[in-house]
Amino acid sequence: MTGAVSPDRRRFLTAGAAVLGAAASAQLWLPSTARAAETPLPDGVFSLGVASGDPLPDGVVLWTRLAPYPLNGGGMPDAVVPVQWELAEDERFGRVVRRGTAQAQPAYGHSVHVDVRGLRAGRTYWYRFRTGGQLSRTGRTRTAPARHSSGGNLKIALASCQNWQHGYFTPYADMLAQDPDVVLFVGDYIYESTPSATAVRRHEGTGEPYSLTQYRNRYAQYRTDPDLAAMHANAPFVVTFDDHEVDNDFAGEIPQDPAKQPHDAFVARLTAAYQAYYEHMPVRATAVPNGPHIRMHRRLEFGRLARLNVLDTRQFRSDQATSQAGAQDPSLTMLGAGQKQWLLDGLRDSPARWNLIASQIMMAETDLQVGEGKLWFYDAWDGYQAERNAFLKEFRNVRNPVVLTGDRHLTMISDLKEDFADPDSAVVGAEFVGTSVSSNGDQDQTAFHQEWDPRLPDNPHWKLLDAHRGYHLLDVRRDGIDARVRIVDTVLKPQATPSTLARLRVDAGRPGVRVV
Ligand SMILES: [Fe+2]
User: What spacing in Å lies between the alpha carbon of 222 and ligand 1's midpoint?
Assistant: First the structure.
């Protein structure tokens, strides 16, 4: 990182001259070099790499975090550090179109979030950061298509659930080769679990994270996975969190184990966890947390082709039910009143061909009881029956709704039915539950099918069920979505062999999904 200063600096000044003139370029760069000389930074400030996210037709967020000692609080001096960034139309930075200086602040873990605007729609850009004579790796990103464009295609990679201790993030190596336009990550980016001596690779620290420094160290460790780092450097991510970014199965300000975590202590934990989440994700300033609150639900538009509604199904939910009757309590909410109305408005008024909903947890029914009667997972939408059913009813009035989900550590691809209580009810949409990057490790597929296949007759809406690690790749076009379930043979080694497990199709104007 440090050795490249001379040639890169020369190239950089040349590139700058093309845009701003040599004098302006020198003014931009020299003062900070002088400042850096006053306070030398440790080597390796860019150890966490670069990322981009939340693409707009005219902009994208560029991210890095200065952390020379990533597993030990970051290791930066307690001072604001200027970080220069530049964004170009070419990989060699010959045509720089935007540049500036961001301030990496100790209060935000020396993270940098640059919300670049004024870019051209639907095109690829390259970017990099520099501070104290050190240069980051080069990142590549892509803006969203023009607002009114209706053609083309959008390649989305759907990923979730990457438990460091369960395996290497090998699916990202294949994802990189598949070159998606955007990566949609729907939760469990980190796991808060205690280090395990028997794991394939071990969590840092000595226990679960509670403090800001502990959460920072955990995120930093995850970012050292080379396949994850490379994916972040090659495509924009759209992220939302689920439970393990904070605490397993938490609901709002209620922890998994209220007896062990008093309310005040859990609020402090939420505050630390959301802050560290913001610091490590390529998200806009709208996601800067306010104490134990963070705004993650948002919409992204991909021309007239697709509208992506990103949900937050953790922060505003009622505590989980503990019985079948409890799950049907109409007072339970998953989204909270404000977000619920926001989603309904966004679905009803959408000009988009495809209305995608990124939900952390599964929306289609999972009936675990073989034969008569039903048994649901209460942490998923099944546990919030009244609100889920209201959305399913609404889907009749929505153009091509497709729900994109994680959490389950399984591939479960389903039709969404207007009323899962009525076997004859209409199909109103489709859902992809995108397995996991590494969580659950390499599963015994035979044992999995022995356990789950007997449930198929009770869940006829399930079109595909599988327990390999991987992700889903969705090619969204006007006439349909062609999806591929991409799996790897192992996550227990740093290298894996990828393959396509199945191909599926969702036709526009015909609700539901089929294996092809
Ligand atoms: Fe998970």
Answer: 14
**Cα–ligand 1 centroid distance for 314 (angstroms):** 13
Q: 359: CA distance to ligand 1 center in Å?
A: 13
CA 245 to ligand 1 centroid distance, Å:
10
Ligand 1 centroid vs 183 CA: distance in angstroms? Answer: 17
Q: pLDDT tens digits for the chain (516 residues)?
A: 333 333 333 333 333 333 333 333 333 433 444 444 456 899 999 999 999 999 999 999 999 999 999 999 999 999 999 999 999 999 999 999 999 999 999 999 999 999 999 999 999 999 999 999 999 999 999 999 999 998 899 999 999 999 999 999 999 999 999 999 999 999 999 999 999 999 999 999 999 999 999 999 999 999 999 999 999 999 999 999 999 999 999 999 999 999 999 999 999 999 999 999 999 999 999 999 999 999 999 999 999 999 999 999 999 999 999 999 999 999 999 999 999 999 999 999 899 999 999 999 999 999 999 999 999 999 999 999 999 999 999 999 999 999 999 999 999 999 999 999 998 999 999 999 999 999 999 999 999 999 999 999 999 999 999 999 999 999 999 999 999 999 999 999 999 999 999 999 999 999 999 999
Pairing of strands 182-185, 154-159: parallel
Residue type, 160: S
Q: How far does the centroid of ligand 1 lie from the alpha carbon of residue 431, in Å?
A: 17
Instruction: Please report which helix (H) or strand (E) contains residue 182, including its range.
Output: strand 182-185
> Number of H helices and number of E strands within the chain?
10, 22
Strand partners, 88: 96, 126
Q: By C-alpha distance, which of 311, 314, 385 is closest to 347? A: 311
State the residue for tokens 């020198």. 26
162 CA to centre of ligand 1 in angstroms? 7
Distance 219 CA to ligand 1 centre (A): 15
Q: 475 alpha carbon to ligand 1 midpoint, in Å?
A: 24
- Ligand 1: distance of its center to the CA of 242 in Å? 8
The pTM score is 0.93
- C-alpha 187 to ligand 1 mean position (Å): 7
Residue written as token pair 């199909």: 427
Q: Distance between CA atoms of 267 and 275, rounded to whole angstroms?
A: 12
- Tell me the one-letter amino acid at 61: V
